[in-house]
Specification:
The chain is α/β, with parallel strands linked by helices. It folds into two domains: about 10-245, P-loop containing nucleotide triphosphate hydrolases (Rossmann fold, 3-Layer(aba) Sandwich); about 260-500, P-loop containing nucleotide triphosphate hydrolases (Rossmann fold, 3-Layer(aba) Sandwich), CATH 3.40.50. Helices cover about 35% and strands about 25% of the residues. The chain contains 17 helices and 23 strands. Strands 13, 16, 19, 20, 21, 22 and 23 form a seven-stranded mixed sheet that branches. The chain has a six-stranded mixed sheet with strand order 6-7-8-3-9-10, sandwiched between helices. Strands 2-1-4-5 form a four-stranded antiparallel sheet, with helices on one face. The protein binds adenosine-5'-triphosphate and magnesium ion.
Amino acid sequence: MRAMSEAPRLEMRGVEKRFGALVALSGVDLVVEAGEVHALIGQNGAGKSTLMKVLAGAVAADAGALRIDGAPYAPRGPADAIAAGVAMVYQELNLAPDLTVAQNLVLGRESSRLGWLRAAPDRARVERVLAVLARPELAPDRRVAELDPGARQLVEIGRALAFDARLVVLDEPTSSLSAAETSTLYGVIERLRADGVSIVYISHFLEEVKRVADRYTVLRDGATVAVGAVRDASVGSLVEAMVGRRLDEAYPPRPPSARGAPLLALDGLAGEPLPSQVSLTLHRGEVLGLAGLVGAGRTELLRAVFGLAPVRAGTVRVAGVEDRGRPTPARVRQGLGMVSEDRKEEGLALARSVAENLTLSSARPFSRGGWVRPAARDACAQRYIDALSIKTRGPAQPAGELSGGNQQKIAIARLLHQDADVLLLDEPTRGVDVGSKVEIYRLIGELAAKGKAVLVVSSYLPELLGVCDRIAVMHRGRLGPARPAAEWTEGALLDEATRGAA
Ligand SMILES: Nc1ncnc2c1ncn2[C@@H]1O[C@H](COP(=O)(O)OP(=O)(O)OP(=O)(O)O)[C@@H](O)[C@H]1O
Ligand SMILES: [Mg+2]
């Protein structure tokens, strides 16, 4: 333990930041002690990532004073942050996919040109980091593009280990990690803490915060509203501080929906390389959940159905029409829609406006004689902004300026606008705060009540149990039988996800 006279590892006082008329931070205080894991929590758009960008020298604050180990710290750019021992793992990955694991680990800290690795000292550094991570798939010479999202996230975390950081910031680190990768991460955190390194941990999973963090700071609307020791706080009290009110129901009651005719039927569907031999039937009015470990083939299944990945064998039947596989535009015409796992790769057009993104799937209602009518489009966009409480300056703001969770909400609203009959949702609440999750669950229930069919992939088991009619578990590309949600428990889902159906 440090002596009482020692300065905190990090002190941020009265930090303010505006983006035009929008006040992102209005006087934030954050104090992180040496060797502690400090959770930074708050709703989507509360200012967590912006505050960390100020710390990293990526965003210049309008006001405020920073100190690291007692010394004044005023970063003018990322190089200053690195020099001060601050390592950032951002919410959106920043790796170079065409470079190797080893190259990515030391990227940006090389004095040499990009891509070129000096022989001896950096090899040792890379090997030391990979030994800590201890994951066989992270071979030094493997291209990052070949890794799945969870392994990429670990490489990103490895970058923070690659030089001797005093303070590591993890912005939603577990959102794409498998259970095994998450325990690797927890191990890394333990090790850093034992070495006296401080960690700022941003997460929307409050159970996780309870597990890994020592203390917490809650941001609401760009201001610090609560600070405390995690062991003295319940999940409910953290939620209350974040949202500003009690949140009683995590899973709103579903409006009644009668199970209707089959809308989507898969028979022996096999992809390249996953899934293998998947059969399932999804009915009107039904919400069907797909559980399984990250990498089990759930994303590949949705992508194959939606025409984004090749189909090797089997058939897809949409509303009675049977075929082996069709390109995505044909699937959209058949009434399928998808929210993909990766916002960045096939999700949003970040440079385009919120309104354009929301209405991209179907601009026809707003065009007359080939001209888009912006007023009508903006009015429509505003309805989605209100319905999903999307935090934005307005329909004209570029989507790339929105916070991570708000971008995810746009991806969902866009699918609503498409008015698809069959909704394929891959981790729909990833990065979404607790309050907005409830709104998304409510929407899913309403869609089912309207006779739509919803297929949800989620790694968050309480969510599947809370919103689905039936749940099936995928294990190594094979899908077990779909059973009523009431017949499952978290333990049973996890068991089948790990070992396969009995
Ligand atoms: N470059 C930018 N230009 C304009 N506005 C921005 C920019 N960056 C952030 N903002 C705004 O600042 C506010 C805070 O965003 P921030 O990304 O810090 O939220 P967050 O707490 O990290 O949310 P999330 O949980 O969704 O990741 C949001 O309203 C966001 O739209
Ligand atoms: Mg963020």
